Amino acid sequence: MTTVDTPRPIPARHPARPRRVPPGIRMVSAALRLPEPTDAEFRRFGELLTVGDAPMDELVEWIYEDRETRKPMFDRALNEGIASVPEAPGMLRAFFEDMETAPEWVDWDRILLGGQLMRSGGADGFSIARDVALMGGYLFSGFNQTLLRTGALEKGSNKRFAETSQWALDVIVPDGLRPGGAGYRSTLHVRFIHSMVRRHVMALPDWDYETYGLPINQTDMAATLVGALIAPVTTGTGIGMVANPREYEAAAHLTRYVGRLMGVHDDFLPHSFRDSLRILFQTSRALSTPDETSKALAQPMADDPMLWRYGHLTGLRRRIARSQHLSIATAYLGRGAMKELGVPSTLPWYPALRIPYHLVESVFNQLPGGRERAARRGDVGQAKFMRTLNEEAAVGHSAHHVTH
Fold it and tell me: Is residue 3's pLDDT more than 50?
Protein backbone atom coordinates (compact mmCIF):
# COMPACT_ATOMS: atom_id res chain seq x y z
CA MET A 1 0.00 0.00 0.00
CA THR A 2 1.60 3.23 -1.13
CA THR A 3 -0.10 6.44 -0.14
CA VAL A 4 -0.10 9.51 -2.33
CA ASP A 5 -0.71 13.16 -1.65
CA THR A 6 -3.86 13.31 -3.79
CA PRO A 7 -6.95 13.55 -1.54
CA ARG A 8 -9.80 11.13 -2.14
CA PRO A 9 -13.49 11.60 -1.31
CA ILE A 10 -14.01 12.86 2.24
CA PRO A 11 -14.60 10.00 4.73
CA ALA A 12 -17.90 9.78 6.59
CA ARG A 13 -16.14 10.38 9.95
CA HIS A 14 -15.71 14.03 8.98
CA PRO A 15 -18.66 15.94 10.48
CA ALA A 16 -20.89 18.00 8.23
CA ARG A 17 -20.09 21.13 10.25
CA PRO A 18 -17.48 22.11 12.86
CA ARG A 19 -18.02 20.54 16.26
CA ARG A 20 -17.74 22.28 19.60
CA VAL A 21 -14.41 22.06 21.38
CA PRO A 22 -13.47 21.75 25.10
CA PRO A 23 -13.81 24.94 27.20
CA GLY A 24 -10.05 25.39 27.64
CA ILE A 25 -9.46 25.58 23.88
CA ARG A 26 -12.63 27.61 23.37
CA MET A 27 -11.55 30.27 25.89
CA VAL A 28 -8.11 30.62 24.31
CA SER A 29 -9.60 30.86 20.82
CA ALA A 30 -12.06 33.53 21.98
CA ALA A 31 -9.38 35.54 23.79
CA LEU A 32 -7.14 35.56 20.72
CA ARG A 33 -10.05 35.89 18.29
CA LEU A 34 -8.92 32.87 16.32
CA PRO A 35 -10.91 32.48 13.12
CA GLU A 36 -13.41 29.71 12.66
CA PRO A 37 -12.38 27.40 9.81
CA THR A 38 -13.77 28.61 6.50
CA ASP A 39 -15.82 26.18 4.43
CA ALA A 40 -12.77 25.57 2.24
CA GLU A 41 -10.49 24.96 5.26
CA PHE A 42 -12.99 22.64 6.89
CA ARG A 43 -13.30 20.68 3.66
CA ARG A 44 -9.51 20.52 3.43
CA PHE A 45 -9.33 18.93 6.88
CA GLY A 46 -11.74 16.29 5.62
CA GLU A 47 -9.77 15.67 2.44
CA LEU A 48 -6.52 15.22 4.35
CA LEU A 49 -8.10 12.39 6.34
CA THR A 50 -7.22 10.36 3.22
CA VAL A 51 -3.60 11.51 2.84
CA GLY A 52 -0.68 9.84 4.58
CA ASP A 53 3.08 10.29 4.48
CA ALA A 54 4.19 9.31 0.98
CA PRO A 55 7.99 9.50 1.51
CA MET A 56 7.94 7.17 4.53
CA ASP A 57 5.16 4.95 3.18
CA GLU A 58 7.13 4.37 -0.03
CA LEU A 59 10.28 3.69 1.99
CA VAL A 60 8.45 1.12 4.13
CA GLU A 61 7.15 -0.65 1.03
CA TRP A 62 10.71 -0.75 -0.29
CA ILE A 63 11.98 -2.18 3.02
CA TYR A 64 9.35 -4.91 2.96
CA GLU A 65 10.58 -6.16 -0.39
CA ASP A 66 13.75 -7.38 1.37
CA ARG A 67 13.31 -6.75 5.08
CA GLU A 68 16.30 -8.77 6.29
CA THR A 69 18.73 -6.64 4.26
CA ARG A 70 17.03 -3.27 4.09
CA LYS A 71 15.70 -2.79 7.63
CA PRO A 72 19.21 -3.00 9.16
CA MET A 73 20.35 -0.34 6.69
CA PHE A 74 17.45 1.88 7.74
CA ASP A 75 18.28 1.38 11.43
CA ARG A 76 21.96 2.17 10.89
CA ALA A 77 21.13 5.33 8.95
CA LEU A 78 18.71 6.38 11.69
CA ASN A 79 21.11 5.80 14.58
CA GLU A 80 24.49 6.58 13.00
CA GLY A 81 23.69 8.78 10.00
CA ILE A 82 23.40 8.00 6.31
CA ALA A 83 27.18 8.45 5.90
CA SER A 84 27.57 5.20 7.86
CA VAL A 85 25.71 3.31 5.10
CA PRO A 86 27.90 3.73 2.00
CA GLU A 87 25.98 0.94 0.26
CA ALA A 88 22.64 2.71 0.75
CA PRO A 89 20.43 2.69 -2.36
CA GLY A 90 19.17 5.98 -3.77
CA MET A 91 15.76 5.95 -2.08
CA LEU A 92 17.20 5.44 1.40
CA ARG A 93 20.00 7.94 0.82
CA ALA A 94 17.65 10.63 -0.50
CA PHE A 95 15.29 10.28 2.47
CA PHE A 96 17.96 10.56 5.15
CA GLU A 97 19.93 13.29 3.39
CA ASP A 98 16.71 15.31 3.38
CA MET A 99 16.10 14.62 7.07
CA GLU A 100 19.69 15.39 8.06
CA THR A 101 19.62 18.73 6.24
CA ALA A 102 17.86 21.37 8.32
CA PRO A 103 15.78 23.84 6.27
CA GLU A 104 17.00 27.43 6.07
CA TRP A 105 14.21 28.56 8.39
CA VAL A 106 15.44 26.48 11.33
CA ASP A 107 16.81 28.54 14.23
CA TRP A 108 18.55 26.26 16.74
CA ASP A 109 18.63 28.93 19.46
CA ARG A 110 14.84 29.24 19.26
CA ILE A 111 14.47 25.47 19.38
CA LEU A 112 16.64 25.40 22.52
CA LEU A 113 14.48 28.08 24.13
CA GLY A 114 11.27 26.29 23.17
CA GLY A 115 12.61 23.13 24.78
CA GLN A 116 13.49 25.02 27.94
CA LEU A 117 9.96 26.38 28.17
CA MET A 118 8.49 22.88 27.81
CA ARG A 119 10.94 21.38 30.28
CA SER A 120 10.21 24.06 32.87
CA GLY A 121 6.60 22.84 33.12
CA GLY A 122 7.89 19.95 35.19
CA ALA A 123 5.45 17.36 36.48
CA ASP A 124 2.50 19.75 36.15
CA GLY A 125 3.29 20.19 32.46
CA PHE A 126 3.22 16.42 32.05
CA SER A 127 -0.05 16.25 33.99
CA ILE A 128 -1.68 18.73 31.62
CA ALA A 129 -0.38 16.78 28.64
CA ARG A 130 -1.92 13.63 30.09
CA ASP A 131 -5.23 14.99 31.35
CA VAL A 132 -5.98 17.47 28.57
CA ALA A 133 -4.15 16.43 25.39
CA LEU A 134 -4.26 12.65 25.76
CA MET A 135 -7.59 12.32 27.57
CA GLY A 136 -9.17 14.97 25.37
CA GLY A 137 -7.79 13.22 22.31
CA TYR A 138 -10.12 10.31 23.00
CA LEU A 139 -12.96 12.60 21.90
CA PHE A 140 -11.56 12.08 18.37
CA SER A 141 -13.34 8.81 17.65
CA GLY A 142 -11.89 8.38 14.16
CA PHE A 143 -8.37 8.26 15.57
CA ASN A 144 -9.59 5.88 18.28
CA GLN A 145 -10.43 3.31 15.63
CA THR A 146 -6.75 3.01 14.75
CA LEU A 147 -5.71 2.85 18.40
CA LEU A 148 -8.13 0.03 19.11
CA ARG A 149 -6.87 -1.99 16.14
CA THR A 150 -3.30 -1.73 17.33
CA GLY A 151 -4.02 -3.04 20.81
CA ALA A 152 -4.58 0.18 22.79
CA LEU A 153 -6.89 -1.50 25.30
CA GLU A 154 -4.58 -4.47 25.79
CA LYS A 155 -1.43 -2.35 26.14
CA GLY A 156 -3.15 0.24 28.33
CA SER A 157 -3.28 4.03 28.35
CA ASN A 158 -0.62 4.23 31.05
CA LYS A 159 1.95 2.65 28.75
CA ARG A 160 0.86 4.83 25.84
CA PHE A 161 1.32 7.96 27.95
CA ALA A 162 4.70 6.78 29.25
CA GLU A 163 5.97 6.21 25.72
CA THR A 164 4.57 9.51 24.46
CA SER A 165 6.17 11.29 27.41
CA GLN A 166 9.54 9.67 26.70
CA TRP A 167 9.30 10.84 23.09
CA ALA A 168 8.55 14.38 24.31
CA LEU A 169 11.51 14.27 26.69
CA ASP A 170 13.78 13.21 23.82
CA VAL A 171 12.47 16.07 21.68
CA ILE A 172 12.91 18.88 24.20
CA VAL A 173 16.38 18.11 25.56
CA PRO A 174 19.17 20.43 24.33
CA ASP A 175 20.29 19.41 20.82
CA GLY A 176 17.80 16.55 20.87
CA LEU A 177 16.51 17.43 17.40
CA ARG A 178 19.86 17.72 15.68
CA PRO A 179 20.71 14.77 13.40
CA GLY A 180 21.65 11.84 15.62
CA GLY A 181 20.07 13.43 18.70
CA ALA A 182 17.61 11.57 20.89
CA GLY A 183 14.62 13.56 19.65
CA TYR A 184 15.63 13.24 16.00
CA ARG A 185 15.93 9.46 16.31
CA SER A 186 12.76 9.06 18.36
CA THR A 187 10.70 11.21 15.98
CA LEU A 188 11.83 9.37 12.85
CA HIS A 189 11.28 6.08 14.67
CA VAL A 190 7.70 7.15 15.49
CA ARG A 191 7.24 8.23 11.87
CA PHE A 192 8.33 4.76 10.75
CA ILE A 193 5.90 3.16 13.20
CA HIS A 194 3.06 5.36 11.91
CA SER A 195 3.70 4.09 8.40
CA MET A 196 3.80 0.49 9.61
CA VAL A 197 0.49 1.03 11.42
CA ARG A 198 -1.08 2.49 8.27
CA ARG A 199 0.07 -0.57 6.35
CA HIS A 200 -1.16 -2.96 9.04
CA VAL A 201 -4.57 -1.38 9.69
CA MET A 202 -5.39 -0.84 6.01
CA ALA A 203 -4.88 -4.59 5.49
CA LEU A 204 -7.37 -5.55 8.22
CA PRO A 205 -10.67 -6.88 6.87
CA ASP A 206 -12.77 -4.75 9.23
CA TRP A 207 -11.19 -1.39 8.33
CA ASP A 208 -13.84 0.81 6.70
CA TYR A 209 -11.91 3.25 4.55
CA GLU A 210 -15.00 5.10 3.33
CA THR A 211 -15.95 5.84 6.94
CA TYR A 212 -12.59 6.41 8.63
CA GLY A 213 -10.23 7.34 5.82
CA LEU A 214 -6.54 6.52 6.08
CA PRO A 215 -5.14 5.52 9.49
CA ILE A 216 -2.83 8.19 10.97
CA ASN A 217 -3.49 10.68 8.21
CA GLN A 218 -2.32 14.27 7.81
CA THR A 219 -5.22 15.81 9.75
CA ASP A 220 -4.76 13.37 12.65
CA MET A 221 -0.99 13.94 12.67
CA ALA A 222 -1.33 17.74 12.70
CA ALA A 223 -3.84 17.61 15.55
CA THR A 224 -1.67 15.18 17.52
CA LEU A 225 1.45 17.29 16.99
CA VAL A 226 0.01 20.55 18.33
CA GLY A 227 -1.94 18.63 20.97
CA ALA A 228 1.21 17.02 22.35
CA LEU A 229 3.53 20.05 22.26
CA ILE A 230 1.43 23.23 22.08
CA ALA A 231 -1.66 22.34 24.15
CA PRO A 232 0.30 21.77 27.41
CA VAL A 233 2.17 25.08 26.98
CA THR A 234 -1.04 26.95 26.23
CA THR A 235 -3.29 25.41 28.85
CA GLY A 236 -0.50 25.74 31.41
CA THR A 237 -1.38 29.42 31.58
CA GLY A 238 -4.60 28.33 33.29
CA ILE A 239 -2.64 27.20 36.34
CA GLY A 240 -0.34 30.21 36.32
CA MET A 241 2.53 28.95 34.13
CA VAL A 242 3.04 32.14 32.13
CA ALA A 243 5.88 32.87 29.69
CA ASN A 244 6.86 35.81 27.50
CA PRO A 245 5.94 36.09 23.78
CA ARG A 246 9.45 35.18 22.62
CA GLU A 247 9.27 31.89 24.52
CA TYR A 248 5.85 31.02 23.11
CA GLU A 249 7.13 31.71 19.59
CA ALA A 250 10.10 29.44 20.31
CA ALA A 251 7.75 26.63 21.35
CA ALA A 252 5.90 26.97 18.04
CA HIS A 253 9.21 26.96 16.14
CA LEU A 254 10.27 23.73 17.87
CA THR A 255 6.88 22.21 17.05
CA ARG A 256 7.20 23.15 13.40
CA TYR A 257 10.55 21.40 13.11
CA VAL A 258 9.32 18.30 14.95
CA GLY A 259 6.37 18.17 12.55
CA ARG A 260 8.72 18.41 9.60
CA LEU A 261 10.65 15.37 10.88
CA MET A 262 7.33 13.60 11.60
CA GLY A 263 6.16 13.94 8.00
CA VAL A 264 3.42 16.55 8.47
CA HIS A 265 2.86 18.70 5.40
CA ASP A 266 4.36 22.17 5.74
CA ASP A 267 1.01 23.93 5.24
CA PHE A 268 -0.21 22.08 8.35
CA LEU A 269 2.77 23.16 10.47
CA PRO A 270 2.68 26.24 12.75
CA HIS A 271 4.62 29.24 11.47
CA SER A 272 3.96 31.22 14.67
CA PHE A 273 2.48 30.62 18.10
CA ARG A 274 -0.84 32.11 17.03
CA ASP A 275 -0.78 29.84 13.99
CA SER A 276 -0.19 26.82 16.24
CA LEU A 277 -3.27 27.76 18.27
CA ARG A 278 -5.28 28.16 15.07
CA ILE A 279 -4.31 24.64 14.00
CA LEU A 280 -5.17 23.27 17.45
CA PHE A 281 -8.55 25.02 17.47
CA GLN A 282 -9.53 24.22 13.90
CA THR A 283 -8.46 20.56 13.92
CA SER A 284 -10.36 20.11 17.18
CA ARG A 285 -13.42 21.54 15.47
CA ALA A 286 -12.96 19.05 12.65
CA LEU A 287 -12.13 15.90 14.63
CA SER A 288 -14.09 16.07 17.90
CA THR A 289 -16.71 13.39 17.26
CA PRO A 290 -17.00 11.31 20.45
CA ASP A 291 -18.68 7.91 20.42
CA GLU A 292 -18.52 4.64 22.36
CA THR A 293 -14.79 4.27 21.64
CA SER A 294 -14.17 7.47 23.61
CA LYS A 295 -15.49 5.85 26.77
CA ALA A 296 -13.74 2.55 26.08
CA LEU A 297 -10.36 4.30 26.05
CA ALA A 298 -10.92 7.08 28.60
CA GLN A 299 -12.47 5.09 31.43
CA PRO A 300 -9.41 2.85 32.04
CA MET A 301 -7.18 5.92 31.85
CA ALA A 302 -9.09 7.62 34.66
CA ASP A 303 -8.08 4.77 36.96
CA ASP A 304 -4.43 4.48 35.88
CA PRO A 305 -3.18 6.46 38.92
CA MET A 306 -4.38 3.58 41.09
CA LEU A 307 -1.46 1.57 39.62
CA TRP A 308 1.27 4.16 40.05
CA ARG A 309 4.32 3.60 42.23
CA TYR A 310 4.93 5.58 45.40
CA GLY A 311 7.53 5.05 48.08
CA HIS A 312 5.15 5.28 51.03
CA LEU A 313 1.44 5.81 51.82
CA THR A 314 0.79 4.22 48.43
CA GLY A 315 -2.96 3.70 48.74
CA LEU A 316 -3.66 7.25 49.91
CA ARG A 317 -1.36 8.87 47.35
CA ARG A 318 -2.91 6.88 44.53
CA ARG A 319 -6.38 8.08 45.48
CA ILE A 320 -5.16 11.66 45.71
CA ALA A 321 -3.45 11.34 42.32
CA ARG A 322 -6.64 10.01 40.72
CA SER A 323 -8.62 12.95 42.09
CA GLN A 324 -5.88 15.39 41.07
CA HIS A 325 -5.87 14.28 37.45
CA LEU A 326 -9.65 14.18 37.19
CA SER A 327 -9.71 17.73 38.55
CA ILE A 328 -7.30 18.90 35.83
CA ALA A 329 -9.33 17.17 33.12
CA THR A 330 -12.57 18.65 34.43
CA ALA A 331 -11.12 22.16 34.55
CA TYR A 332 -9.96 22.13 30.93
CA LEU A 333 -12.24 19.69 29.13
CA GLY A 334 -15.47 20.66 30.90
CA ARG A 335 -18.18 18.54 32.45
CA GLY A 336 -19.86 17.93 29.11
CA ALA A 337 -16.73 16.36 27.65
CA MET A 338 -16.15 14.34 30.82
CA LYS A 339 -19.64 12.90 30.43
CA GLU A 340 -18.94 12.01 26.80
CA LEU A 341 -15.74 10.31 27.94
CA GLY A 342 -17.62 8.39 30.61
CA VAL A 343 -15.36 9.56 33.45
CA PRO A 344 -16.45 11.34 36.64
CA SER A 345 -16.18 15.11 36.98
CA THR A 346 -14.86 16.71 40.12
CA LEU A 347 -14.08 20.15 41.49
CA PRO A 348 -10.98 21.68 39.82
CA TRP A 349 -9.21 21.82 43.15
CA TYR A 350 -5.71 21.03 41.92
CA PRO A 351 -5.43 23.82 39.30
CA ALA A 352 -6.80 26.30 41.85
CA LEU A 353 -4.23 25.14 44.40
CA ARG A 354 -1.29 25.51 42.00
CA ILE A 355 -2.10 28.91 40.47
CA PRO A 356 -0.43 31.06 43.18
CA TYR A 357 2.74 28.96 43.17
CA HIS A 358 3.14 29.02 39.39
CA LEU A 359 2.40 32.74 39.11
CA VAL A 360 5.23 33.53 41.52
CA GLU A 361 7.48 31.03 39.78
CA SER A 362 6.68 32.61 36.39
CA VAL A 363 7.93 35.99 37.64
CA PHE A 364 11.25 34.51 38.76
CA ASN A 365 11.56 32.63 35.47
CA GLN A 366 11.83 35.96 33.66
CA LEU A 367 14.88 37.04 35.65
CA PRO A 368 18.32 36.55 34.06
CA GLY A 369 19.00 32.82 33.91
CA GLY A 370 15.54 32.09 35.30
CA ARG A 371 14.29 29.99 32.40
CA GLU A 372 17.41 27.83 32.42
CA ARG A 373 17.03 27.22 36.16
CA ALA A 374 13.33 26.43 35.71
CA ALA A 375 14.19 23.94 32.97
CA ARG A 376 16.61 22.13 35.26
CA ARG A 377 14.00 21.98 38.03
CA GLY A 378 11.49 20.75 35.50
CA ASP A 379 13.83 17.96 34.43
CA VAL A 380 13.85 16.66 38.00
CA GLY A 381 10.06 16.79 38.29
CA GLN A 382 9.50 15.11 34.94
CA ALA A 383 11.98 12.33 35.70
CA LYS A 384 10.21 11.69 39.01
CA PHE A 385 6.85 11.64 37.26
CA MET A 386 8.14 9.07 34.76
CA ARG A 387 9.29 6.82 37.61
CA THR A 388 5.88 7.15 39.26
CA LEU A 389 4.14 5.87 36.12
CA ASN A 390 5.79 2.50 36.78
CA GLU A 391 6.00 1.62 33.07
CA GLU A 392 8.67 0.70 30.57
CA ALA A 393 8.91 3.83 28.45
CA ALA A 394 10.73 2.67 25.31
CA VAL A 395 9.38 4.71 22.38
CA GLY A 396 7.37 2.47 20.07
CA HIS A 397 7.45 -0.59 22.33
CA SER A 398 3.65 -0.89 22.50
CA ALA A 399 3.55 -1.17 18.68
CA HIS A 400 6.20 -3.91 18.63
CA HIS A 401 3.73 -6.51 17.38
CA VAL A 402 2.95 -4.32 14.35
CA THR A 403 6.52 -3.31 13.47
CA HIS A 404 7.69 -6.90 13.78
Answer: no
